[in-house]
Amino acid sequence: MFTFMFATGIENSTPTIRGGRERVDELEKCRFYHRWRTDFELVQDLGLHFLRYGPPIHKTWLADRRYDWAFADETFSDLKAKDVLPIVDLCHFGVPDWVGNFQNPDFPRLFEHYARDFAIRYPWIQLFTPINEMFICATFSARWGWWNEQLSSDTAFVTALKHIVKANVLAMRAILEVRPDAIFIQSESSEYFHADSPEAILGAERFNRERFLSLDLNYGHDVDARTYRYLLENGMTAEEYSFFLENHLRRHCVMGTDYYQTNEHRVWEDGTTSGSGEVFGYDEITRQYFNRYRLPVMHTETNISEGPNGDEAVYWLWKEWANVLRIRNDGIPIVGFTWYSLTDQVDWDSALRENNGRVNPLGLYDLDRNPRAVGRAFKALVANWNKLLATQSVCLALPVFLPSQQNDAIVRAQQEYARSLLSVDRVAEGGSEPFALPRIEAEPDAPG
C-alpha cells in the first residue's frame, strides 16, 4: 500500500511526420534501446519504485493479435526483478503503420485487443496509462496538423478524439478483465487560456471548455450545451456520446495532470494563441481539474531546461514540489509526483515535429547518463520527503503493490474484491466518491 508515489519516466513517443513517411522514435533518439539496463539502474539509484514506461508500440504490435514481445519481455522482466512497478504507457502519440492513424474507426477495437493481450502476458503489472495525453494527441494530430494524420479541422479533431478516448475506455475494460484491481493513471495535459483583451474573452472561454474534452469523455462527465453542439456538428453522433456517459470507469482512475511552462496560453483578439508562461501555476490549474472530476490526482509530468545558470531546473523542481505540497495540505488527494523524463529529451523544442537530433537538457541525467543538478536534487527530495509523507496520511493509501508483493494474501484478497465490483461499474456513473477501492490495513509502506 502506498500513500505517495515518486516517479520518473522514459518516454516512448512514436508519432509519424512528413505525411506518415517518417517516424519519431524517442526511445531511439534517447539511446534507450542500447542503454536501458543502465537506465533502470538509475531509477533504482534514485530510490524510486515507480516508472512511467511502455514498449515501443510500432515494434511490438505487428498486426491484430500478432506481436513481437521479445524486447518487452526483457525490459519488463528486469523491472520486475528490480521491484520497480511500471505505469505502462501503451500508446504514446503514435500507432503502427498498419493501423494508419487516429482517423481509423477500427482503432478502438484493435487497441482493445492489444491492451488485453498485454495484460495477459504481464499479469503482475497493475498501473496503466493506456493512451497518453489524449487531448494533446488529438490536437497535434488532427487540429494543428503536426503529427500522424496531419489534418487541421474541427471534424478531424473530433474524429481523432472520439476514437482515442473510446480506445482508452475499451482498453481499461479489457485490462480489468485480466487484472481486476488495475489502476489507470490517465496522464493528461492540464491547460489554461488567458484572454488578452475583452475581444478575446469568447475565444478563451471556448478553449477553456474544450481543454476538458478528453477527460469529460473518459470520465463520463456531461459537457455543456455549446460543447455538445460542437461535437455533434463535427462528426460525433448522439449514440457515440452516450457510450462515454455509460461506459466510464471512474472507480479505477487516478487523474494524472501534466504541467509545463507551456501549458498556459494567451488568447488574442483574432483567436490565435501564444504561450503566456506560468501565470496561475500547477496549484490553481489542478484545482480546476479536481473540482470538475473529484478524483485522486498525480502530478505525472513536469520539467524545464537546465539553463545558462545551471540551477533553473532545480528551482523549477522546488517550485513544482511546493505546489504539490500546497494542494496536499489543502485536502486534495494528490498521490504522486513525477519528473519527466529520466534522461534528456531530443527534439522536444520542435514538439517532435522534426527529426533534428537536437538534445534538450530536460532530464535528471544527460544522454551519457551523467546526473544533472536536478537529478541530484530530485534524489535528495525523494529521500527527504518519502518517510514523512508515508506517515502523514494513514487514511489515504492507494491499493498498489510492488512486484515483490504480488503473491501476498492481501493482494489476492484485494483482487478478488475488485473482481466483485466489476459488475457494478456500469451503474456507477455520476458517483461522487473519488476512489471506491477499499482502504485495507497493510504492513508499513515500502520506500518509494
From TrEMBL:
Keywords attached to this entry: Plasmid
Keyword Cell division: no
Pfam families, alphabetized: Glyco_hydro_1
Protein's organism: Mesorhizobium ciceri
Keyword Chaperone in record: no
GO annotation terms (biological process): carbohydrate metabolic process
Name of the featured protein: Family 1 glycosylhydrolase
GO MF term set: hydrolase activity, hydrolyzing O-glycosyl compounds
Alphabetized PANTHER family for the sequence: ALPHA-L-IDURONIDASE (PTHR12631), BETA-XYLOSIDASE-LIKE PROTEIN-RELATED (PTHR12631:SF10)
